[in-house]
Amino acid sequence: MKKLLVLALLAISPSGCKQGLGERCQVNADCDSNICSKSSPQVCVSVDDMSQTQIDAEVPPAPGDGAAPDGP
Question: pLDDT tens across 13-36, in order?
Answer without folding.
Answer: 555 688 889 899 999 999 999 999
